[in-house]
Amino acid sequence: MSTTIDKAVETLNTKLANGFAGSAKIVIKDEGAIMLDGSGARAGDEDADVTLTASAETFLGILDGSVNPTAAFMMGKLSVDGNMGLAIQLGSALS
Questions:
Q1: Would you say 69 and 53 are in contact if contact means Cβ atoms under 8 Å apart?
Q2: Biggest alpha carbon distance in the chain?
Q3: Closest CA to 9 of 82, 59, 66, 69
């Protein structure tokens, strides 16, 4: 597992201490994937209600607050496949 995935899982579990309603997969290009659900975040690559895909730089920027998730989506740096409502909910939780 990559250090980027490890760092992201740790940060997500802090930000989403009560888990996430639904299931989400975050694909970090050239690094791997993270699964989010009611039990928290973990490295994994399973089916989910929504999948978000971004570069490591974009996703780590979202986590540290230097990149706005909505702006990243509008600029094509973040792609969303699946339930847009869950994507918006996740974006709000990460901001």
A1: no
A2: 31
A3: 59
